[in-house]
Structures are given as C-alpha cells and as structure tokens.
Amino acid sequence: MTSQTLHHFSPEQLAQRNAEFGLTEHWYTDDELDALEASDPLAAARIAQRQAKIARIRQQAATGDIIPVTAEGLADIMTEIRAILLRDGGDIELISFTDTSVRVRLKGACAGCPNAMLDLKNVVETLIRRTYPQIKEIQNTY
After folding, report:
1. Which of 89, 121, 87, 84 has the alpha carbon at shortest distance from 104?
2. Which domain holds residue 56?
3. Fewer Cβ neighbours under 10 Å: the N or C end of the chain?
4. Measured between alpha carbons, how far is 134 from 99 in angstroms, rounded to an integer?
C-alpha cells in the first residue's frame, strides 16, 4: 500500500470552485440552523461545524494568529487520538512533522483495517487541524 496525500482547500478556494460550478455559498443563521435541525439534525450539525471551521480559519488568517507546530503540542493531540483508537484496538505513533505536514503510523488493529483511511481523515486529521489549521498534509507511513 502507498500512503495517500490529503489536500485541503482554503475557504476562498472552495468559494471559487463553487462559483465555477454555479453553486452559491449560503451562510446559515442560528435560527435557520435551529429550523433545519428539527427536520435534518445531521445536516444541521455538518453545516454548523463547517461554518465554525470557516470562521475560525478566516479569523486566524485575518489576525495572523497561527500557533507554531511543536512536538509537545502534537504529543498532546496524539494522546487524545490514541485514546480514541485504543477503543477498537488501534494505536498511533508520530513519525515526523514540518510546519505544513505530519507523518504518523497507524498501528495495532488500525494497521490492517479497511477503515484506516477513514480514521486517518475523520479522527487524526480533524483533531490535528483543530489546533493547527496550517497543516495541509497528514500521511500514514506503513
């Protein structure tokens, strides 16, 4: 198997891409999200999460408040990720990192699991990018 590179688009790139496809970006108000939650709670949660993420990225870009990537910070995040993966017999090891990329090794039950790429994206990427939005690439090293 080869490791897969994950690419993340900035909010501006997503807006440009949506415009090219004729899609308009609608920013939902709290009242609209509450109404949507009554009929489709999953969609409302996804929209709220996406809007919060875009707002955080815009704020950090505007103020320049980007936390530098450190070994100690990543170790704290790895502890949180490890606790999640250990529930299913998996584990994770931090291999290396730069200012924009992180290399990890999924171990234990995650090593041969068909859902390993989903865990990489939904757990590892989400938790790392929550603290370090400047990370553009997260790779699993086999």
Report:
1. 121
2. 11-63
3. N
4. 7
